[in-house]
Specification:
158 residues, mainly alpha, three-stranded mixed beta sheet, 7 helices
């Protein structure tokens, strides 16, 4: 299975974990797990987080990935700020990095309808968030995210 090959081996290992737990949900599943030093400057300005994912991130990275010959279709994408964690003296163990990437993956799993769609389908369907925008309480780490984390944890244990 194809995955984006990062320059950081800990991110490649994390991508393989995401791939193992997500493969039954969204085949063909080949995640993009990138370090902030591997993406254009315009993607590095996100503040107050150690990793970042959102709807259409794969689509926004498409031209950049195409130019590198690393585009393999729409899939889960996340950017990990390893440099920020290093600056704060956080030990970048495989467990920490994998946990962080799985945390981000849970945000995508919250809405499999979003996750299984292409950027064009997302736009046409009006899918503009990971959770139901009518319920602001679910916007960040609400019940759907917690359910997704439990599901991912169960898959990882199999």
């Amino acid at each position: 299975m194809i995955t984006y090959a990062s320059n950081h081996e800990s991110l490649n290992r994390a991508a393989r974990w995401v791939q193992m737990v997500g493969v039954n949900e969204v085949p063909p599943f080949a995640p993009y797990v990138l370090a902030s030093d591997e993406v254009p400057e315009s993607f590095r300005g996100i503040e107050n987080c150690d990793a970042y994912t959102r709807e259409n991130l794969d689509d926004d990275l498409k031209l950049f990935l195409h130019a590198q010959g690393k585009w393999h279709g729409y899939n889960f994408a996340t950017i990990v700020f390893l440099d920020r964690m290093t600056e704060r003296s956080i030990r970048l163990t495989d467990e920490r990095v994998t946990g962080l990437v799985l945390h981000e993956f849970a945000h995508a799993v919250e809405s499999l309808a979003w996750f299984k769609s292409t950027a064009e389908q997302r736009e046409a369907a009006g899918l503009h968030g990971f959770t139901d925008e009518a319920d602001g309480a679910l916007r960040f780490h609400g019940p759907a995210w917690h359910r997704a984390v439990c599901h991912i944890g169960y898959r990882a244990s199999q």
